[in-house]
Amino acid sequence: MKPLNLSETADWRARFRAPSIANMQLAGNNGKHGMVATNRSGVTQLYAWDVTTGNLRQITNKPAGVVFGGISPDGNYIYYHDDFQGNEHGHYVRVPFAGGEPENMTPDMPLFDSFTMSQSLNNRLFGFLAAGASGFQFYTIPVGESGELGERKLLYTSPALSFGPSLSYDGDYAIIATTERSKSTDMCLMAFHLANPSPEQKVLILEESEGSVEPIGFSPISGDTRFLATTDVSGYNRPLIWDVKTGDRLDIPLDDLEGDINTWGWSKDGKQLLLARLFQATYQIYIYDLEKSLLLKVNHPSGSFFFGTFSDNGQEIYSIWSDATHPAQVVAISVKDGSLKTVLAAGDVPASRPWRSIHVKSTGGATIQAWVATPEGEGPFPTILHTHGGPTAVQTETFSASAQTFLDHGFAWVSVNYRGSVTFGRDFERSILGMLGHREVDDMAAVAQWLIENKIAQPDSIILNGGSYGGYLTLQALGKRPELWAGGMALVAIADWRLMYEDQAQTLRGYQQSLFGGTPDELPEQHKSSSPISYVDNIRAPILVIQGENDTRCPARQMKVYEEKLKESGKDIHIHWFNAGHGSRAMEQNIEQHELMLRWLYRVLG
Questions:
Q1: Residue of higher predicted confidence among 78 and 555
Q2: 269 vs 261: CA distance, rounded Å
Q3: Environment class of 438 (CB within 10 Å of its CB; exposed 0-12, middle 13-18, buried 19+)
Q4: Which of 254, 394, 398, 420 has the most CB atoms at less than 10 Å from its CB?
Q5: How far apart are CA 606 and CA 190, in angstroms?
Q6: Are strands 173-178 and 162-167 parallel, antiparallel or unpaired?
Q7: From residue 328, how far is each of 305, 307, 343, 344, 345 by CA, in Å?
Q8: What is the band of 602 on the pLDDT scale with cuts at 50, 70, 90?
C-alpha cells in the first residue's frame, strides 16, 4: 500500500468532483431539445438540454438527486418520478422545458413506486406504471393540444413483475411486458388495442415456450403497428419485429455474431435499426437496414456506450461514452467512419490506470470474465475484488472514480462478471435463479485464486467490495468462504432476503419473486440458504457496511438485524448510515464514503 492520502488536493477527490453524464434523451420529434442527468452541481440532477447551443438549464434540485427522467416527444416537458430523499415512493411530475414549477400529474393517487413511463410520439397519450399493494398497475393519461391533462384511465393490473406501457405513435396501441406467465424473470408481451371502442377485446400475446421477450418500442411512423423487441430463445438476445395488428413476427437472427445483440431503437424513417452487440462485456455498434437485410458495423473506438439514438439526418449516433480513463460524456458517433465528436463534455480528471479483460475457469466448467487494473510497480498487491449490482447487469469498461481511488493507494482492483451477469448468454444468466449467492461466490473465489497464482493479489490481503447485489455478494462470500478474504466493504447491501421482502418496494418484490421463483413463504429454505445472515457464525474478517436510511430496495431493518446478530457473535462490523436511498448521487457524499473506506482499509490491513 502507498501512504494514505486524505489531502483536499488528492487526485482521487478530483476524479469524484469531475462532472459526468449519467443519462441522456433526445425529444422524439424535436432534435433541438433533450434531457440529461449530470452531477455538474455536485449532485446528479435533471437538466433541459438545448442541443443546438449545448446550454443546460437545471430542472430538478432534489437533495438526494435524480437520475431517471424523460422528455416529451415535442420537447416541451421533462418528466420524472418525484420521491422523498431517494425512497422511490412518489408521483410523476412534469416541468416545462423553458422552466417552471413541477406539476403533479397524479395528485389524487396515493404514493406509488415506478420505474417506467412513456408518451406516444404524437404527444397525445402519457402512460406510466404505479406499483403498490394492489400489484403492478398501468395507467394512461390523455394530453391535449396545449398540453392539458385529461382523465386518467386504468389499463391493466398484474400481480407479477411488469414493465411499460410502450405506446404506438398515435396512441392506438399499448404494450406491457410481464413475468406473470412464467415463474422466473422470463417476460412475455401483451398488446392492447386502445383505439378499439369495444369493452371486450382480445389481448394479443407474444411469448416464447422457453425464453424471454423484452420490449424496445413502436415504429416512429404514424399508423405503423410494428413493435421492436428482443428475444433470448436462441441463447442470446436477438431483435425481432412484431406487428401488433396482424400478429406477424419477423426474427432477425444475425447468426454470424456471438453474444447479445441489444436493440436500441429505430431510425427516424423506420427503415433501420440501431443495435449494440455486447459480447464478453465489450461493445460494438451496428446498423441493420431492414429493406436490404444488410448489417453495417460502425468502426468506433473501444469503451462503453450507454444507450444510443440516431440524429435527425441519420448520419450520426448520439450516445453516452466512457472508458477506464475517461468519465461519461455525450458523443456523436459518425456512421461513416466511427469517429467520436464530443457533444457534452465531462470534466477533466487526473491520469488514471487502464483496465484489461481476463477469463478464468470456475466450478462446473464455467468461464468467468473479469476486469483487472493494477497500480504502478510490481505485484503482488493488496487487492479489491469488486462485484457489480443487479444481478442482471454487467460490468463493462467504464470510468470508475472508486476503482481509481484504490489504485492510487497501491491496491490492485478487479471486477468479476459472475454467473447471473448479462451478455454471456441465457444459460449463464439464468444459472443462478432459485439458488442465489452460491455459484456467484464460486466465481469470486476462482478469480481470487487466479489473481494469487498470477502474482497480482497478496493472498492475505484481498478485500471484497460491491454495492446493491454486489454488496450482497460481499456479505455472502464473507460467510460462505471466510478463509479467502481479509475483509469486506458492502454498500446498500442485502443481508436477509426474507426481511428485505417484507419491507421493500412493490416493484422490487416482484423482481425478487422472479429471481427465486416464489416468495419467502413459498420457498423458505432457498431464501435462507441465499441470505448472508445464515452464515454469521462463519465470518472471520472485519466488515464495513454503508447503507441508505431511505433505501426501499435494500431496506434498513434487515441490515440492522444483521448487525445485531454479528455483534452478539463478537464479530467486527461497522455500519455507516447516510441520508439517501439506494446509493449516493452526491459528489461530496461519495467522497465522504470513500474516505471512510480508506480509513477502514488502512486500519484492517495495517
A1: 78
A2: 21
A3: middle
A4: 420
A5: 58
A6: antiparallel
A7: 9, 12, 12, 9, 8
A8: very high
Q: What value does the CA radius of gyration of the chain take, rounded to a whole number of Å?
A: 24
Angle at 247 between CA 242 and CA 250, to 5 degrees: 40
What burial class does residue 478 get, using C-beta atoms within 10 Å of its C-beta: 0-12 exposed, 13-18 middle, 19+ buried? buried
- The reported pLDDT for the residue numbered 345 is 93
Region of 229 please: left (phi>0), alpha (psi -120 to 50) or beta: beta
For residue 365, give the nearest of 420, 421, 428 by alpha carbon: 428
- Distances from the Cα of 314 to the Cαs of 52, 158, 265, 575, in angstroms? 16, 38, 13, 51
Rama region for 600: left / alpha / beta (φ>0; ψ in -120 to 50; rest): alpha
**Rounded distance between C-alpha atoms, residue 55 and residue 561, angstroms:** 48
Residue 524: other Cβ atoms inside 10 A: 12
Instruction: Lowest mean pLDDT of 208-212, 270-274, 462-466, 555-559, name the range.
Output: 555-559
Tell me how far apart the alpha carbons of residues 185 and 497 are, in angstroms, rounded to a whole number: 17
Q: How far apart are CA 527 and CA 507, in angstroms?
A: 18
Using N-to-C axis directions, what is the helix angle for 401-408 and 587-605, rounded to 10°?
Answer: 40
The cell for 445 is: 473465489
198 — pLDDT class (breaks 50, 70, 90) = confident
Q: In terms of DSSP bridges, do strands 381-387 and 412-417 run parallel, antiparallel, or are they unpaired?
A: parallel
Specify the 3-state DSSP secondary structure of 471: helix
- The arrangement of strands across the sheet holding 294-297 comes to 260-266, 272-279, 282-289, 294-297
Neighbours of 563 (CB within 10 A): 18
Burial of 431 (0-12, 13-18, 19+ CB in 10 A): middle
pLDDT of 584 over the 60 cut: no
Look-up: residue for cell 467520436? 340
Residue with cell 427522467: 69
Q: 560 with 577: CB under 8 angstroms?
A: no
Question: How far is Cα 598 from Cα 592, in angstroms, rounded to an integer?
Answer: 10
Q: Which residues have CB under 8 Å from 406's CB, separation 6+?
A: 384, 413
Q: How far is CA 348 from CA 37, 47, 307, in A?
A: 18, 20, 23
Residues 6+ apart with CB under 8 A from 451: 372, 383, 385, 412, 414, 457, 462
Q: What is the mean pLDDT of residues 336-340?
A: 93
Strands lying side by side in the sheet with 316-323: 304-310, 316-323, 326-334, 340-344
